[in-house]
Write a structure and sequence with these properties.
The chain is α+β, with helices and mostly antiparallel strands. Helices cover 43% and strands 8% of the residues. It is built from eleven helices and five strands, in the order H-H-H-H-H-H-H-H-H-E-E-E-H-E-E-H. A five-stranded antiparallel beta sheet has the order 2-1-3-5-4, covered by helices on one side. Helix 5 packs across helix 11 and helix 8 packs across helix 9. The chain is globular.
Amino acid sequence: MARYTGPVCKRCRREGQKLFLKGAKCYTEKCPVERRQYPPGHHGPASVRRRKQSDYAMQLREKQKVKRIYGLHEKQFRNLFEYAAGRPGVTGENLIIALESRLDNVVFRMGLTASRRQARQLVRHRHVSVNGTTVNIPSYRLSAGDEVALRSKSRDLDLVAASLEARTRPPLLDWLSLDEKRRVGRVVRAPTRGDIPLAAQEQLIVELYSK
């Protein structure tokens, strides 16, 4: 499947805020979104002076923002929304929880990588196991009690060591645990929306897809 390989800072500028797609560099470098506070492209500066966004535009931007934070394509994101809509409970919350339960996201949340992009690469290259079995599918959905570990030959990778030692590393979330020395983590319990530090209005995404 095709994957976006262009400048990730353009995506932050398009959404008008930091999406932290470059990991630790987003904390230590001055982001282009701060220097150029307008969308990329020839008409970017002019768009700042345009009239107030419509409801549809706000819904679309919220969907694009969340989709880019987690690194998904439209078909993947839509499939995940349909899964969330079929689950009992609030659809928007189900969607965010489903995104957080992806293997690549959990590897990132445990601090084993500095970004979700690195986590996806780590999984794809068969460095990660779930409950003792190697899994190379980033979208693999984890459940409470699942153990996530780096394979023995992958525990000393430079990117893993750098991520765990980074001063800007986010704190470990309550629904996860990690043994840094052994490079083994566990999903302690299923997350709730309140456990997830994501500044998003998921109801706007539900409204967009419900049209």
